Amino acid sequence: MKSYAIYDGDLDRGSAIGYLFYYEKSQSFIIELCEDLGEWDAPLLFQGLVRKKIYTVSEDISLMWVKERVIPSGRQNIGSILKNYKLKEYSEMALLSLSKGRCSQDNCYIEEISETDIPENIKERMRKNVRECFPTEDKQLVCMFNDNTVRKVDLTKLVDKYMDISYVLKNRKLLDSVKVGVGGYSVVFNESIKIQVSDLRAIGLLLPLTANDFHNFVYRNVVNTTKACDTLQCSRQNLSYLVKEEKIKPVICGSKEKLYLKGEIERVLND
């Protein structure tokens, strides 16, 4: 992740108005605005958000802000422009960095900063993001957050706001496709249906567990094939037979390795 402070040269303030985060692997942008930014001091694209006291700018709107400030990919002479800047391919971030985010619409610009320069209140906001998630058998979603809290989310309560969730609830394969979105700002189904972290936290039922509890469980209670064979004092062939006879059920079946619950292995040992 690369971090940039956003400044506005038209404002009489020496501090940033917000922070731009670029996630290199997914080539995605997220903007966090400062909470002391007034509605009429915010860039035009963000004024409606600031009016509602929303300071975390979603991935799609953040990308819109970036695209306002770079040469569009469909420009007729884009090949010559990239060659002139010694760029091998089109990249919003590369072009944004070259111009320092300046454009003719306003006097905003960006400066790259280190992670240690990100203000603590922005870091605290990011600690509320999703760390891990998984669906339950009753079609709810368990989300573990960076602040070590865990919430169980009833997805039916989000159908009115996210209409596509109705399709997710009807299709187990879609539900199981869930993963954490860029920077933990959302969860994503089928690479396209996104639920923002603010909504997950708003309706999620706080569980009396922590994210570390789940990690400790996995660390202490999930074993690989070698450990399972050592515990049972049997060969891999014998273990495969037990799996085939459904006396042991792997929790994960990989192409080269399987993972098992330690308690189930010990139960078979003691039977």
Task: Write structural notes for this entry.
- This protein is an alpha+beta fold and 271 residues long.
- Helix content is 34%, strand content 25%.
- It has a five-stranded antiparallel sheet. A four-stranded antiparallel sheet has the order 6-7-8-12. It has a three-stranded antiparallel sheet with strand order 9-10-11.
- A hairpin with a 4-residue loop joins β2 and β3.
- It is elongated.
- The model has no long low-confidence stretch (mean pLDDT 92).
Q: Could you give a short description of this structure?
A:
The protein has 271 residues and is α+β, with helices and mostly antiparallel strands.
| Low-confidence segments | none
Largest sheet: 5 strands, antiparallel
| Strand line-up of the largest beta sheet | 4-3-2-1-5
* Computed CA radius of gyration, to the nearest angstrom: 24 Å
Global morphology: elongated
Assess the beta-strand content as a share of residues: 25-35%
Estimate the helix proportion, in percent.
Answer: 25-40%
Oligomer type: single chain
Q: SS-based structural class?
A: alpha+beta
Mean pLDDT: 92
Order of helices and strands: EEEHEHHHEHEEEHHEEEHEHEHHEEH
Helical stretch tally: 12
Distance linking N and C termini:
51 Å
Count the strands?
15
